[in-house]
Amino acid sequence: MGGDLVSYELRPPAVVLTMNRPERRNALSRGLIEALTSAFARARDDAAVRCVILTGAGPAFCAGMDLVELQAKLGQPDEADEVRADAIRLARLYDLIYTLPKPSIAAVNGPAVAGGAGLVTVCDLALAVPSARLGYPEVRRGLVAAMVMPHLLRHVGERTARWLLLSGELLEATEAQRVGLINAVVPAAQLFDTAHSWAAFLAEGGPQALATTKALLQRFSRQAMSLEETALASAEPRLTEECQQGLRAFFEKRPAPWAQR
């Protein structure tokens, strides 16, 4: 599936979906977004699946948007259309996971940053290893984390969300648990055993009752902006000179021109 960018391992009552770009810290390329979309749609329709566990191959869960791929698009004749289309694809993936009628668990095996932290927030439950760090450094690159805002706010509240989104700082796993971004921190050797025990516990719920509960939770937490509006709010900053300066600084491993450190 998707050139093995996502593995689909059925372990009833769950399926384990593993992002498989360890050489790029599972960064969200267009190919990985498409593969994840296909994998979650398959899990939704697979009668053998009662719960979905999402994790990453290698030392990272997900490093967020593939900045190499983004930089390659900028300056091209069709850059605006491509950047906007990619943002909508990711927004639709988030929505697919968030509205999935089956429970989902993020097994955070390492850093979950930017769009990777967004994946954690759209899953129903999340557990992480002690070495994991989570956060949203987009502003430090001249980017805006628009798509993850409503999901982050549901978990941590506005004060913590403002700190994370405006500062770009990453949280240690224990702090992420304290503020409600994840449910638990477990030793690395116990990550998947714990995730599977949670899946078995969730599978004790009636499938229709779980689906209805999730649908009601979505209605009670309806976001103010549409999926398309949120995606475009994330895409437009990518087309600015500020973003291009931020990306150049990131790849050259130097401070962005607006940084005062």
Between the first and last Cα atoms, what is the distance in angstroms?
45 Å
Percent of sequence in beta strands: 5-15%
Arithmetic mean of pLDDT: 93
Radius of gyration, CA atoms, in whole angstroms: 18 Å
- Report the count of strand segments: 9
CATH topology: 2-enoyl-CoA Hydratase, Chain A, domain 1
Q: Assign the CATH architecture.
A: Alpha-Beta Complex
Broad structural category: alpha/beta
Share of helical residues: 40-55%
Question: Largest sheet at a glance?
Answer: 6 strands, mixed
Query: With helices defined by DSSP (H or I, 4 residues minimum), what is the helix count?
Result: 10
Categorize the overall geometry: globular
Question: How many structural domains can be distinguished in the coordinates?
Answer: 1
The CATH superfamily title: 2-enoyl-CoA Hydratase, Chain A, domain 1
Instruction: Give me the side-by-side strand order of the main sheet.
Output: 1-2-3-4-6-9
